[in-house]
Amino acid sequence: MKIMLNGKKIEVEGKRTILDIARDNGIFIPSLCDHSLLTPFAGCRLCLVEIKGKKGYSPSCATYAEEGMEILTETPQIQKMRKQILELILSEHPHSCLICSEKKSCEDYKSTIRKVGEVTGCVFCPRNGRCELQKVVEALGIEKVSFPSIYKEYEVKKNDPFFDRNYNLCILCGRCVRVCHEVRGASAISFIYRGTKAVIGTALDRSLIECGCQFCGACVDICPTGALVERGVKYEIMEDEIKKTICPLCSMGCELEALLSKGRILSFRPSPHGPSNQGQACVRGRFALREVIYSKRRILRPLLRKDHLLLEESWEVALDFVAERLKGYSGNEVGIVISPQVSAEDIYIFKRFATEVLKTENLVLSVADEYMAMLRQILEGDGFSQDLNLNPKDIAKAKTIFIVEEDLPLTHPILWLEVLKARRNGADLIVSSPREMSWARFATIYLLHKAGSEPWLFDFMSKILAEKNRPSPQTHENNFDSLLKRLSELDLSQAGDLSGLGGEEINKAAFHLERGAPVVFIFGASLSLSPFGKEAIFSLLNLALLCGAKIFPLGLENNLRSGIEILMRKSKNGLSLTEILKKTREGKIKALYLASPFPSLQNHNLDFLLIQDCFAGENIHFADVVLPAATFAETEGIFINFEGRIQLSKRIIQPRGDSKPDWWIISQIARRMGRRDFDYQKASEILREMSKVIPSFSRLSYSRLEKGDVFFGEKRREKKNRRGNFKIGAEYPSPKGGNGFVLLREYSLDYYRGLNLSEEVKGLKLLRDPNWIRISSEDRKMLNLEDGEEVELEISQNKIKGAVKTMDNFPQGVLGLSFFWNKAYLEGLKGQDLLKVRIKRGK
User: Could you tell me which of 129, 629, 726, 731 has the fewest CB atoms within 10 Å of its CB?
Assistant: First the structure.
């Protein structure tokens, strides 16, 4: 369409607001309530424009362009009206500095006065220099306020973690309320009261924690004034540099901006145009990362044990000692455990070092990578219709979404936003879980099934779909006849006994899957950790094939995709993580190289323990040598997120102390052990070598990654919808009878390398203490326990301490364990095993 904007002819495509069109054409229209992430609000009224043929004035943020429209944005009447509106806004906002005639000369004298308890002007405000209201006042040339000033005298809210709420500075633009509701789906805050008493607040003035706030920081980032401010940088000076990096804390791979002053990180915020997160973050990435880098637990110097004490030593001495000791071990005598939170280059060098220098096959990631490796084999090696490269936009476009046992707002909060988009577009949401999730209110159907009954539940749904709509004849070659024979053994009348759900509920869910194309299935490691996890995944994939669903198998860790790809070709003779732990206790592994957190080695029988980490964990007390590794912010390398998106994370600060990149440390040890071909000077040289020897990394380079999106195995390919083979796994497992408990393990992503974020970051500890043992109120009474009582569980010779937490929505007969992640992979702890659990009472 063609329109006239201030006498200029402009061509417009699509549905666009006048405000957006003006901005694209370099025409300034002031606005304080508009934001690209939010629906038009037209609250501040500063963006009023005049449209020929229309009475009065129209808000440009909420008025869409039409063919032939003639618009004026800067008439004398409009400018006068804008100034009056802005003066009204300022009458209820501390504005003395905004209209001060000497504010330019104030810069030399205001360095410390911000620390006063009450904000009466800009120089007292933590958002001074970053405030949108300041910029609008300057643009409109406000020199006085004609209306009497009103100070609201609200108490500053400081009872929640991470940020303060000072509603004396609020201009009621509603951005924070709208982003919390429209984008994040939390609805923790809203407008309360009306008229002159209107304010932003919570129900019954409760704390944000009580109201279900996610502390994602979206409200802080979108606030145009100083009403919401991050507590950690409240008294900091303004940043003088901004650098981009990749968050290392989960598989989303969110792009963040680091705000720096004189080379020191002040804060992190989501990059507005981050390809994976689009301006959003979670509590960990938004508020915890600075605490990670500047933690008091950082290891900053090499440590060498002398006379039973770990003492600081030079790199030369420490590396020579390590090389000399490692020369005495090889093959099955050595175990290496590495973190999936390091770069692909680091993982590659670790593999070369293990196989070529130490001649060992015992190299593993510090998480149970069997889950993702199994999925890769199923999806890419068995004729399934998709690979592991995923597109989050497919979720937003889906008509039916099936989430299986994944607490998505916690494990993949940015992906959860795509689910919310789909719901707003009318999609159905089916959720399957043995326990009620806090976000159950968004579900169309909630299948609250018995713990451990997943294989039966999914097969019941498959039986309904297969018998109602038999697939085409060509599916006979895809094991369909075998699947149908197996499903015929199921009697839907037994659904209640097996799954705890009635046939009507299961039928209803199957009906939605059948009619709601396109369908998306979302599941993750939670399903594999459940009792009969492998059988459950097979049954779920069969169901996905029957309803033509696209599956989203989610990994946990930041760079797990790189680790699986680089290590997948290792020999099958190599030990698993739990096997390495077992053999260290038996003395069959004599030397252990830990570049990741690891279960306690208190009862180990090792000759030599080398720890290479950023932080001092519990196993440092048993180490012979400790080498300080650089954090993600102090090195560079490539990371592959859950989409298959390859991202380059650059160094943003100099390494603290004497810490070094992991690849540098390994290379130096290898050179001292006689390998001159480990002469790497920078990480990009390692990637160049990887691109030649690993096919899936071919043609990769830092310069190419800097130019734009690159996906694993080249650009994301849209495959034609073709069927895969139905999975016929083992016989149906028998449900456990008696009065025993089903054990549910819950992993925690609140860590980086060897640092437990819930111990390091006080605010995060308030949100979710990881040491709970969850149980229903009826089970608690049966076991004669008190809520909050300290207990110790002894499971397969492993002891777990925690406090009893009664949850009204927790199912009976289920014991839920939530603790620091590495204890989730205890030796011999398998969901389908019958375990004896002894509860030791605390004081």
Answer: 731
